[in-house]
Amino acid sequence: MDAKPGVTVRFYGALNDFLPPERRGQEFHHVTQGSPSVKDLIESLGPPHPEVDVVLVDGEAVDFAHRVRPGSRVAVYPPFHALDVTPVTRVGPPPQDAPRFVLDVGLGRLVGFLRMLGFDSLWRNDYADDELARVSHDEDRILLTRDLGVLKRGEVLRGYFPRSTDPAHQLVEVVRRFGLTARMHPFTRCLACNGPLSSAEPHEVQDRVPERVTERHSRFQQCADCRRVFWAGTHQQRMQALIDKLRDLERAE
């Protein structure tokens, strides 16, 4: 019996994470109704569109609005890092000079890590799905979420689905995905509110820190927004060790 009308599809790289095991790393036949758009076809199969960078239909690069006819061959690629594909039509937006983020409610620990590295990162424990998508679009922020439904919203242009549930591993994923290592400016943002930090003299903060701290430390930072005070304690030492590991990972790649 002849196969039902459809298309031949293959996903590459990390996009295979969203496929069932039997479809990963190989071509497969997918039955379609009519001529769906590239975006609708891809997302019906699992991957969210913000994780896609290049789509080839019958060997030609197309955009998300392109209609896929029965019998077509579709190849879908994630963002390239080592290969220059500038002449090719890309469905993903160009990289940001200074990446900014907005994170969903389930990534509260990850946002602290990103702020620690100096990245402008918004988070609230009551963001609604539509608000996350709107903020991502209107402020040109990368949406980080483990909710595929939010990531597939049409207004979301930049986004990533952390595969791991461990915040430290999620940080490694995000740093690698968006090439953040060379753009890190550690300890320049408030871990609590995302505001910028500035240097402060001991006498400026003595009424906001325990007396024993001012006796042992002479260098402080304070948040311009919430006025929290930070100093180089054991917590900062642990964070510095994590930063060093991230830089080691980059050198090893």
UniProtKB/TrEMBL annotation:
Pfam family, one: Ub-Mut7C
Source superkingdom: Bacteria
Residues annotated as domain Mut7-C RNAse: 99-242
InterPro entries: Beta-grasp_dom_sf, Mopterin_synth/thiamin_S_b, Mut7-C_RNAse_dom, Ub_Mut7C
Domain (Ubiquitin Mut7-C): residue spans on this chain: 6-84
Alphabetized Gene3D superfamilies for the sequence: 3.10.20.30
PANTHER family: MUT7-C DOMAIN-CONTAINING PROTEIN, MUT7-C RNASE DOMAIN-CONTAINING PROTEIN
Name of protein: Mut7-C ubiquitin/RNAse domain-containing protein
Annotated source species: Pyxidicoccus fallax
